[in-house]
Design brief:
The structure holds two protein chains of two kinds.
Chain A: H1 12-17, E1 21-25, E2 28-33, H2 37-46, E3 49-52, E4 57-62, H3 66-73, E5 87-93, E6 99-109, E7 112-117, H4 122-133, E8 140-143, E9 147-153, H5 157-164, H6 169-173, E10 180-183, E11 186-189, E12 198-204, H7 208-217, E13 221-222, H8 225-234, H9 271-275, E14 282-288, E15 299-302, E16 308-318, E17 323-330, E18 339-344, E19 347-354, E20 359-360, E21 363-364
Parallel strand pairs in A: 3-13
Antiparallel strand pairs in A: 1-2, 3-9, 4-7, 4-8, 5-6, 6-7, 9-12, 10-11, 11-12, 14-17, 14-19, 15-16, 15-18, 16-17, 18-19, 20-21
Helix pairs in contact in A: 2-8, 5-7
Chain B: E1 8-9, E2 14-18, E3 24-28, H1 30-36, E4 39-43, E5 50-51, E6 56-62, E7 66-70, E8 75-80, H2 83-86, H3 90-93, E9 101-105, H4 117-128
Antiparallel strand pairs in B: 1-2, 2-3, 3-9, 4-6, 5-8, 6-7, 8-9
The chains are: A alpha+beta, B alpha+beta.
């Protein structure tokens, strides 16, 4: 039994009624799967599935100087968000350049931004943001703990959301990728963590059950965190706390592209440190060439040597590829196309180094492996 | 699913069935496959391998983790279910039909040390508690 009770989302009872196998995720009782993780994964790749991600947290950042504050707080530059409804993906760094979290920031209107942060780091993020904004008198931070969050993902996701909520149809049809809009009491963003099209919907907790049921009736299948993990791994999306943490800088974890250095007049938190911290390693993909399953924290060596040269950070079975894949930290001079060996339990198995993502829009991006 | 009466069980969730030709067929229980989740890989033992009772001799890997399979009695591996190489999910579909390996037991009497169906049902009950 856990020492303290696990937190529950507004959809907890619905998950239990659906026969979900529940697990503890960062202190929240969340659905791991509803019967078959692999079948849920495939549903998202071919049709539409939905995830309760209400354990994540939206934080509204508003005020006259909200934009300037975020230009200081975040490594990507919110000045790039010119049209209301646009969004970008960014890291939030410490002074030493280490990553505190990865997040999406939505520009809703002048002086109004919404940031969505990871569940595991939410409280630390809020504390950090509050501390950083203390000197900015007209910047207001508002954690929106009363909102439920549903991610509906897959090639048919938007169509099925429109079927469940016909009054949202025109807003959803005109919503561009990586943009957001408001409909009724819902905030809808065309973003996600699966590599498929889809939307993430934030709405008042007391409306979440009705929406979930309507989506089910429209043919959207409930999917758990197990499928969410295999989907994001195939899509080459890093998981904070596993593929990156406070000890890593963005360039080490494939996120150098999210750091906007162009404006030399923008001193964001961690900028100076980054300039003095060149990457010590890089993150690339691995595809296992033999039968078996790669996991995180497995050692890597060059073929026929004894020296460990890297380590896997996330690994697993990729249902779309019918193979095992991993994200791995490798030396800077290692290149895609080369072969390495991975220590899987007590054997060294051959793997090919590849660029990621491994899958896009349901299709393998892997080169020929034979 | 009710636990079949035609075989014996280990506390580590393997089932063992004595067949008319004197060999012992081994698999994992429905309770085990449910705990493991979708299986993606089965590492079968080598033919001819001699194993002691309780020795790890095969591995099933699910999306979440790898799990060892222990020989329920001592003996020699005489057959493995090759179909599981391409379709490990057969174990999820019907754990009592999807046998993993077959052994020639060193001493058939060792089967009596295993649990019967109701003994195993109690193991499941305490697992679920």
């Amino acid at each position: 039994m856990p020492a303290t009770a696990l937190r529950q989302t507004p959809l907890f009872e619905l998950h239990r009624e659906s026969g979900a196998r529940m697990v503890d995720f960062s202190g929240w009782e969340m659905p791991l799967h509803y019967g078959s993780q692999i079948s849920e994964h495939q549903q998202v790749r071919t049709d539409a599935g939905m995830f309760d991600v209400s354990h994540m947290l939206a934080v509204d950042v508003e005020g006259e100087r909200a934009r300037d504050f975020l230009r200081r707080l975040l490594a990507n530059d919110v000045a790039r968000l010119v049209a209301p409804g646009s969004a970008l993906y960014s890291c939030m760094l410490r002074d030493d350049g280490g990553i505190l979290d990865d997040l999406i920031v939505y520009f809703r209107a002048p002086c109004r931004y919404r940031i969505v942060v990871n569940a595991a780091t939410a409280e630390r993020d809020i504390a950090w943001m509050s501390e950083q904004s203390a000197a900015w008198l007209d910047v207001v931070l508002a954690p929106r703990r009363e909102l439920a969050i549903l991610a509906v993902q897959g090639p048919q996701a938007r169509a099925r959301v429109s079927a469940a909520r016909p009054q949202w149809q025109s807003a959803i049809e005109s919503l561009r990728a990586f943009h957001c809009t408001d409909v009724d009491d819902a905030f809808v963003a065309r973003t996600g963590y699966t590599g498929e099209d889809g939307v993430e919907i934030l709405l008042p907790a007391d409306q979440a059950s009705a929406l979930w049921q309507a989506l089910r009736e429209a043919g959207v299948r409930p999917c758990g965190l197990g499928a969410r993990d295999t989907l994001r791994l195939e899509a080459g999306m890093a998981l904070y706390g596993q593929d990156m943490d406070e000890t890593t800088v963005p360039a080490e974890v494939g996120l150098g592209w999210t750091v906007a250095m162009q404006d030399n007049g923008r001193d964001f938190i961690g900028r100076v440190a980054l300039m003095q911290r060149p990457p010590r390693f890089q993150t690339l993909g691995l595809v296992l060439l033999e039968k078996g399953v790669l996991r995180g924290h497995q050692n890597i060596r060059s073929v026929d040597t004894d020296t460990t040269c890297g380590v896997t950070t996330s690994g697993g079975f990729a249902p779309t590829l019918n193979r095992s894949i991993a994200l791995a930290r490798l030396p800077l001079d290692c290149s895609a196309g080369s072969q390495v060996e991975v220590e899987v339990r007590d054997r060294w198995l051959r793997a090919r180094v590849v660029h990621y993502p491994f899958v896009r829009h349901g299709k393998s991006l892997l080169p020929p492996l034979d | 699913m009710t636990v079949p009466n035609d075989r014996k069980y280990a506390e580590t969730h393997e089932w063992a069935r004595l067949d008319p030709d004197g060999t012992v067929t081994v698999g994992i229980t429905d309770h085990a496959q449910e705990q493991l989740g979708d299986l993606v890989f089965v590492e079968l033992p080598a033919l001819g391998k001699s194993v002691a009772k309780g020795q790890e001799c095969a591995v099933v890997e699910s999306v979440k983790a790898a799990s060892d399979i222990y020989a329920p009695v001592a003996g020699e591996i005489v057959a493995v279910n090759e179909a599981l190489s391409d379709s490990p999910e057969k174990i999820n579909e019907d754990a009592y039909a999807a046998w993993i390996f077959r052994m020639k037991p060193r001493n058939v009497a060792e089967l009596n040390e295993l649990l019967d169906a109701s003994g195993y049902e109690q193991v499941i009950a305490s697992d679920n508690a």
